[in-house]
Specification:
This protein is of the alpha+beta class and 357 residues long. The protein has eleven helices and eleven strands. Strands 1, 2, 3, 4, 5 and 6 form a six-stranded antiparallel beta sheet that branches. A three-stranded antiparallel beta sheet has the order 7-9-10, with helices on one face. Strands 8-11 form a two-stranded antiparallel ribbon.
Length: 357
């Protein structure tokens, strides 16, 4: 349970009970029962500057609230609402030294850890695409990089190579096959960052963590209600959002499935997501973004696999694990998916072209 709970709630002018909520990899999350709010401890091991983190979130959600109001929507339901402290701050550092924030709980909607239907994935795609479109005029340069080089795949490879060299956990000798595969795929690493540097891909406001469970779907209609978990909202490429959503959602299995025969890239799910996402974003894409859409699914899956492998080699210091070797299981899973995506790139291009016409 939360340390200093009464102290924290008092600072937000609340009196209630809290219980654990959700199963995210990074932050500890609790639900406050009455009135319904979500309390989170910010993981400052990952997000080193909570000031910049929360300034990003407040700036983006206030912008979205204004946009949604002008469109006749419900801002309390269609974007996150940050609850301010008595001192008008967006977070509170408690006497235990830890940082906490509170959002309104969005009701009659929920998240899903695994895609269950094509329609569900289509609706999630539209929600992420709409999020991108609503922020298309927001000045990306005004946002902080909450995790510098978060989706810079070349830098992720630098981190992996350092982890291999340092071998802090003494595990490198047992994962030579995985290391060899990762290094063989390095040829793809700079495809997006090079295009950004060349100016053929614009820097946009991006979510950067577009897993299915970061969009809330309405309990009745199944439509996307609100994109959540805005910790990694910062300047980036639309391709990161598109590719990461497919990495997670179009896989035939959970990202830690150990039976790799069950892991493949589902083309029906790919098409469903692509249709929904491009319905919302197709008119703003540059030619280079259009070209790299299929490859972005491979790139983001590869990047995630290298991160899992590096964390395994470093002794599991970043991602939460629930069993020994959990990060290695995740890395193997992602690398199997990379192989399958690579074999399907020509077919994926045909699908993208179909919905860009």
């Amino acid at each position: 349970m939360v340390e200093c709970l009464s102290e924290i709630l008092s600072e937000f002018d609340l009196k209630a009970k809290a219980k654990p909520f959700g199963d995210g990899h990074i932050n500890d999350t609790y639900v406050i029962e009455s009135p319904p709010y979500v309390l989170q401890r910010i993981n400052t091991e990952v997000f080193k500057n909570p000031d910049n983190l929360m300034e990003n979130i407040v700036s983006v959600t206030r912008y979205l609230r204004d946009y949604i109001k002008k469109e006749g929507g419900d801002p309390d339901r269609e974007t996150l609402t940050v609850i301010m402290t008595k001192g008008d701050k967006s977070y509170y550092q408690a006497s235990n030294g830890k940082y906490y924030r509170i959002y309104k709980l969005i009701q009659k909607a929920k998240t899903y850890n695994q895609v269950e239907t094509l329609d569900q994935f289509y609706n999630a795609a539209k929600a992420f695409g709409k999020f991108q479109n609503m922020l298309s005029d927001f000045p990306a340069e005004s946002l902080y990089e909450t995790i510098p080089d978060f989706h810079n795949t070349s830098k992720r490879y630098d981190n992996l190579e350092k982890a291999i060299s340092d071998d802090l956990s003494g595990r490198a000798k047992d994962v030579e096959k995985e290391i060899e595969f990762a290094l063989s795929m390095k040829k793809y690493a700079s495809s997006v960052t090079d295009a950004i540097a060349e100016g053929t891909i614009p820097v946009r406001v991006t979510h950067n963590d577009t897993k299915l469970n970061n969009v809330m779907l309405d309990d009745t209609t199944g439509e996307g209600v609100c994109v959540i978990d805005l910790d990694t909202v910062m300047p980036g490429s639309l391709l990161y959002d598109y590719g990461d959503a497919l990495r997670f959602g179009a896989s035939s299995a959970a990202e830690d499935e150990t039976d790799l025969s069950k892991v493949y890239f589902d083309m029906e799910l790919f098409e469903s997501f692509t249709k929904g996402y491009l319905e919302e974003t197709g008119n703003i894409l540059t030619e280079k973004e259009r070209e790299l859409l299929p490859l972005s699914a491979l790139l983001l899956t590869l990047e995630c696999g290298t991160r899992f492998l590096a964390d395994h080699l470093n002794g599991d210091t970043y991602f939460k694990i629930h069993r020994p070797g959990h990060n290695l299981d995740r890395a193997r899973n992602q690398f199997k998916l990379v192989s399958d995506i690579e074999s399907k790139l020509p077919e994926m291009k045909k699908v993208v072209d179909k919905y860009l016409k």
